[in-house]
């Protein structure tokens, strides 16, 4: 079974699903007021890869990821563009799914929208008020943090040190500066909902805790998100759930941030690149491979050189699968996938998703497959190729045959040229290379044989 780093304990722990064979995972989704940035791309890929791996292991995964479609940022954009907030949210949600489809991210099992849960949130807040864990301040409803002894668990700080270190501006409506808002009263706003505590909008921390528990129950296996969400967002979700007696998430999983140059990518710095800008330039799988080449908890550096390297590495994978495809026929269908490769792959992934190691196992496999094909050891080559194909699929790096953009005629010529090169018939080899060039395909000769790509 997979072991994952749990931010709540700081330990790498075995995942033990409460229901055998079913893994319940909640991942905080985007606030839809702008095009997604690289940080979004990283988190969706990290949890997509985790989900695909758990499914490959035979578990059912209930993957819930929300859309925050009520938020001050959406309202601000709507105001400045003289539009309805729902139009803004609708537009950027469309962009979101388009980018996720381009990245080959599996759709979550459930995609709750905050605006569809307003009544549930009002009921939830009322319950918190009833038990004395929340109170009505002048401008909304606040959660009384001192009610939760273990508050600060995800921030790795004690309640006491948070209280004394709070740098929040004093707010006369709050009993303590670290109390947080569950409901914000906006009596004059057009975009607001009626509630027993006044006309207004729910807070973001309440949104996720209500939707997660509605769809996954009061306890579930994994709560994921970017490291920047651990505090205060996840801490506050957890506090509300605990106040009402839920055990909530068993494992808190957080992925690291994106680094562009030497700095954390930020909208306030000039190093900001949107996700569609990045993946529009190249094969979108290059970004996925880059994400896989770093451990999910480490900072991830992104620049055009690294994306270019990843795109070239993809060609090795595609060429390996083309080679497999060309050699495949019914006579070798009984050959089992190489168990050694699959075992090492599983060990790497079970160890807190060590995808950098798993990727190096994949590329070593490609090298051995090519050597086996060159030596004429077809059975071994096919066994390795089958293992490679499985790993590629689990990582979401696969393309269907037609997407390899290598028409049959091109593959024929390429293989013919490979044969000529192996026979050291250089005249024929050069002629075939020129013919491929005319068709718009380049060949690069490597130790492992020729690599073909569209020019
Ligand atoms: Zn959330």
Account of the 3D structure:
- Residues 344-406 form the Cysteinyl-tRNA synthetase class Ia DALR domain.
- It is found in: Cytoplasm.
- This is Cysteine--tRNA ligase.
- The structure is a single chain.
- The protein has 455 residues and is an alpha/beta fold.
- The protein has 2 domains: 3-255, HUPs (Rossmann fold); 313-454, Up-down Bundle (Four Helix Bundle (Hemerythrin (Met), subunit A)).
- It is 46% helix and 16% strand.
- The chain is built from 15 helices and 15 strands.
- The protein has helices spanning 38-56, 72-80, 85-102, 118-130, 159-165, 204-216, 230-243, 275-281, 285-293, 304-327, 339-350, 355-374, 378-394, 408-422, 426-438, and strands at residues 3-6, 11-14, 22-27, 60-65, 134-137, 140-143, 180-185, 200-202, 219-226, 248-255, 258-260, 263-264, 300-301, 441-446, 449-454.
- The strands form 5 sheets. The protein has a 4-stranded parallel β-sheet, with helices on both faces.
- The radius of gyration is 26 Å and the shape is elongated.
- Bound molecules: zinc ion.
- Zinc ion binds next to loops.
């Amino acid at each position: 079974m997979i072991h994952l780093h749990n931010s709540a304990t700081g330990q790498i722990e075995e995942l033990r699903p409460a229901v055998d064979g079913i893994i319940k995972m909640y991942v905080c989704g985007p606030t839809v007021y702008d095009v997604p940035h690289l940080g979004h791309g990283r988190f969706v890929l990290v949890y997509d890869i985790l989900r695909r791996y758990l499914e490959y292991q035979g578990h059912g995964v209930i993957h819930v990821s929300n859309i925050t479609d009520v938020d001050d940022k959406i309202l601000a954009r709507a105001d400045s563009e003289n539009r309805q907030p729902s139009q803004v949210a609708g537009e950027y949600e469309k962009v979101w799914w388009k980018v996720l489809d381009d990245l080959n991210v599996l759709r979550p099992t459930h995609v709750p929208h905050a605006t569809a849960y307003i009544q549930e949130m009002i009921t939830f807040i009322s319950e918190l008020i009833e038990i004395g864990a929340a109170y009505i301040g002048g401008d909304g409803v606040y959660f009384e943090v001192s009610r939760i002894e273990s508050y600060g668990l995800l921030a790795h700080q004690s309640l006491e040190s948070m209280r004394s270190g709070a740098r929040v501006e004093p707010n006369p409506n709050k009993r303590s500066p670290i109390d947080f808002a569950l409901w914000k009263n906006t009596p004059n706003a057009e975009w607001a909902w009626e509630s027993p505590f006044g006309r207004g909008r729910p807070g973001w921390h309440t949104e996720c805790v209500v939707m997660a528990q509605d769809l996954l129950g009061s306890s579930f296996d994994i709560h994921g998100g970017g490291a920047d969400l651990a505090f205060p967002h996840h801490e506050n979700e957890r506090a509300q759930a605990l106040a009402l007696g839920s055990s909530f998430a068993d494992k808190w999983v957080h992925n690291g941030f994106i680094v562009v140059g030497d700095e954390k990518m930020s909208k306030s710095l000039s190093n900001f690149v949107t996700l569609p800008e990045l993946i529009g330039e190249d094969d979108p799988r290059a970004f996925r491979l880059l994400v896989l080449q770093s451990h999910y908890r480490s900072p991830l550096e992104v620049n055009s050189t690294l994306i270019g390297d990843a795109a070239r590495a993809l060609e090795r994978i595609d060429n390996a699968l083309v080679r497999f495809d060309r050699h495949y026929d019914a006579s070798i269908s009984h050959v089992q996938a190489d168990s050694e490769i699959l075992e090492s792959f599983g060990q790497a992934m079970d160890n807190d998703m060590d995808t950098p190691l798993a990727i190096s196992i994949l590329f070593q496999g490609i090298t051995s497959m090519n050597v086996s094909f060159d030596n004429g050891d077809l059975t071994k080559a096919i066994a390795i190729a089958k293992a490679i194909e499985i790993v590629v699929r689990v990582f979401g790096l696969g393309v269907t045959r037609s997407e390899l953009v290598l028409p049959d005629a091109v593959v024929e010529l390429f293989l013919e040229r490979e044969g000529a090169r192996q026979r050291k018939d250089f005249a024929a080899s050069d002629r075939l290379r020129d013919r491929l060039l005319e068709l718009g395909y380049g060949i690069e000769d490597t130790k492992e044989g020729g690599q073909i790509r569209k020019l």
